[in-house]
Design brief:
703 residues, alpha+beta, Multidrug efflux transporter AcrB transmembrane fold, Alpha-Beta Plaits, nine-stranded antiparallel sheet, four-stranded antiparallel sheet, 19 strands, 50% helix, 17% strand, elongated
């Protein structure tokens, strides 16, 4: 029986000598990647399961010490006994308590919530004045963009615009939206104590009378008519509630709620309100669903906003801010640009040192390995996010290393008398062990990242997996596909071609440098080896000194520059809503003035969008404001232009803004903060250090 050539040489010889098998594998890898890439979801961060359950209790009027002794110390021992709990953090503040429970990774959170509810229900020693405990399970929300609807119209009208906009988004499949800046109007009934005594009524009687009149009561179904009968008339306005009868005397006179109490309607502007300049605004936050694609959702929101804008009155506009999909698209563009640049540089350099055909086939390893890696990522359920894209970018310079080694050695062996097939086969066999060993060390180094636990470990787990699959794909392309193509490239390069002239000239010069310069230099290094070793030690010591002196600082996670800046402020007790609005206007004016000054200084205004709010703080709020009235809190959120378009950081802008911020006589504190990406903030570290410790006045809002 005739032996198939190369069969005795194993799998490397088989793929080298059989072009059909090698090309079929190449087509499979490319096709799998091309099919997987359009179907991969794009998002900002990987999906991270939040294994937390929080229990919060309101106790109005109670101090932090009373809350800690009456609620936290009663609830916490029972909650710590719940199955699966591995960590807890309690917080007691004026009027409220919260306990955060962390469960084992991968624990069934539905069962965890049920167990926590059962544990809370078994406790009967909570103060009677405290509200019922509220249990919330952990979850994630991945923001896509914020939509701001603003204009010179009433807030109520903006609210109707926001409702219609959300309905249109829902019709297009965008279901995760949150409207902010709009609160339903409320009717306030204030009863002076002297009136309770003068009219001989109680607050319970008033509350009962109002509760019986505000809603109509269902009276049953109308058979066959698909309708329901309701009795009574809903009384919701201030005038209707004032006319509710509390008591009818024998002489025919009636005592109404309006006779006893002051009834007024508080409008929408009494709650959190947003402003863009002088105009009110409504914010609609758009999040992606668990299976949503951030870039696709972004395009949908843009299309709906464009159509909706055409129907709005003059002066009213729809603005999109904090578009995370742009960051994802930018990272994808970086990947494509770096890939194209790297591919071009590899081709040029290999074209100079090797022949043109060898350079092309070696460079082909970049798209082949990347597409194969995308296919494996898709099968494994990974997505295109900021973490996995970072991993793909850092592997661009690695994937061609193996191919360069094998391709150059095959070319070298062909110049020593071996046939093209033998040269390619020998190069694959000789380089298999060293290349596999070097790749294995890189795989082991990145595989160590998988042992990092917790939420941070879950977030960066895409990095080791992505790097490992790219390296594996590179090995497959290098030893199973490239040798066959190299055999054809070497065979074609045995004749002198005009396009190989640069390679021949560079190699001639390279040999001259190697023989005349490099060899004598290395001989001198070996002769003066002790001097060279001493110089290396001195260089190492100089770098260690930089670290010891603190010139090179250690930072666990250095967040990248961000373009979002927030300024929160709180007014002193007794300040009115008008005072808060006045402070907000001062911050707006200062911000706009500083933006114009930066434009004169650097040639471009750094302000991309500015939105202010009254009724709360933006982002991570100020500590110690839990007991303040909402009207005494405010904030300004600033979106700066992209960091690549300005020669200064957001922190430099924040520092100058903090110095120039004008303070209202009734303001208590003003704090600006530039947002940073990534875990490990100052407040988070403090929360970790104080974990398992109860503290009365918490200064952080959680880790």
């Amino acid at each position: 029986m005739r032996q198939i050539p190369g069969q005795a040489g194993g799998i490397l010889s088989y793929f080298t000598r059989h072009p059909t098998v090698a090309n079929l594998l190449l087509v499979i890898l490319l096709a799998a990647g091309l099919l997987a890439a359009p179907n991969m979801r794009a998002q900002f961060f990987p999906d991270v399961i939040d294994d937390d359950v929080s229990v919060s209790v309101r106790w109005d009027g109670a101090g932090p010490e009373d809350v800690d002794s009456g609620i936290v110390q009663v609830l916490e021992p029972t909650l710590l006994a719940v199955e699966g709990v591995v960590n807890s953090e309690s917080r007691s503040t004026e009027g409220s308590a919260s306990i955060d429970l962390e469960f084992e990774p991968g624990y069934d959170m539905m069962k965890a919530v049920d167990d926590v509810e059962a544990a809370v229900d078994s406790i009967s020693e909570l103060p009677e004045e405290a509200d019922d405990p509220v249990i919330r399970s952990g979850g994630w929300r991945d923001r896509v963009t914020d939509v701001v609807i603003t204009g010179p119209v009433a807030v109520a009208q903006l609210g109707r615009f926001a409702d219609e906009f959300v309905v249109r988004l829902f019709a297009e499949g965008v279901t995760q939206t949150t409207i902010r800046g709009l609160a339903a109007p409320q009717v306030i009934v204030e009863v002076p104590s002297r009136n309770l005594i003068a009219f001989d009524v109680t607050m319970q009687e008033i509350a009962t009378a109002i509760a019986g009149e505000v809603d109509a009561s269902p009276a049953g179904d109308v058979t066959g008519a698909n309708a329901r009968v309701r009795t009574g008339i809903e009384k919701r306005s201030a005038e209707d509630i004032s006319a509710i009868v509390l008591r009818s005397d024998r002489d025919g006179t009636k005592l109404t709620v309006g006779d006893v109490a002051n009834v007024r309607r508080e409008g929408i502007d009494r709650e959190r309100t947003y402003f863009v300049g002088d105009d009110p605004a409504i914010s609609v936050r758009v999040d992606r669903s668990a299976q949503g694609d951030a870039i696709e959702i972004q395009h949908t929101v843009e299309d709906v906003a464009r159509e909706f804008q055409a129907a709005l009155p003059e002066g009213t506009r729809v603005d999109l801010i904090r578009t995370r999909a742009e960051a994802i698209t930018g990272r994808l563009n970086i990947l494509l640009d770096n890939g194209a640049t790297g591919l071009l540089l590899v081709v040029v350099l290999l074209f100079l040192f090797l022949n043109a055909r060898t350079a092309i086939w070696v460079a082909a390893g970049i798209p082949t390995a990347m597409l194969a890696a995308l296919a494996l990522m898709y099968v494994s359920g990974l997505t295109l996010n900021m973490i996995s894209l970072f991993a793909l970018i850092i592997t661009l310079g690695i994937v061609v290393d193996d191919a360069i080694v094998v391709g150059e050695h095959a070319d070298h062996m062909s110049r020593h008398g071996l046939t093209p097939v033998e040269a390619s086969e020998t190069a694959a066999k000789r380089m298999a062990l060293p290349v596999f060993s070097s790749t294995l060390t890189t795989v082991i180094a990145f595989f160590g990242l998988t042992i990092i636990g917790g939420r941070f470990g879950d977030m960066i787990s895409d990095i080791p997996f992505t790097v490992i699959v790219v390296l594996i794909a590179s090995l497959v392309e290098c030893f199973l596909i490239l040798p066959n193509h190299m055999s054809h490239a070497i065979a074609a390069s045995q004749k002198a071609h005009w396009y190989d002239l640069p390679s021949r000239m560079v190699n001639r010069g390279f040999r001259w440098v190697r023989e005349r310069l490099f060899r004598p230099f290395m001989a001198g290094v070996i002769t003066a080896r002790y001097v060279v070793l001493a110089g290396a030690v001195v260089a190492l010591a100089s770098q260690a000194a930089l670290f010891i002196e603190g010139d090179v600082q250690w930072r666990f996670f250095n967040g990248p520059e961000r373009s979002s800046v927030t300024g929160n402020f709180a007014m002193v007790p007794g300040a009115t809503r008008a005072d808060t609005i006045a402070q907000m206007r001062r911050l707006q004016e200062t911000t706009e003035a500083l933006g114009r000054e930066y434009e004169e200084r650097y040639g471009r205004n750094p302000l991309d969008y500015v939105i202010a709010e009254i009724g709360g703080n933006a982002g991570r709020g100020l500590s110690g404001t839990e007991s303040k009235d909402a009207d005494q809190l405010g904030a300004i959120s600033i979106e700066l232009i992209d960091a690549d378009l300005r020669p200064y950081s957001s922190f430099a802008f924040v520092g100058e803004l903090q110095e120039r911020a004008e303070r209202h006589p009734m303001v208590e504190t003003i704090s600006f903060r530039g947002w940073r990406s990534g875990p490990g903030g100052r407040c988070a570290r403090r929360a970790v250090l104080r974990r398992h410790r109860r503290y009365a006045q918490g200064r952080c809002r959680g880790p």
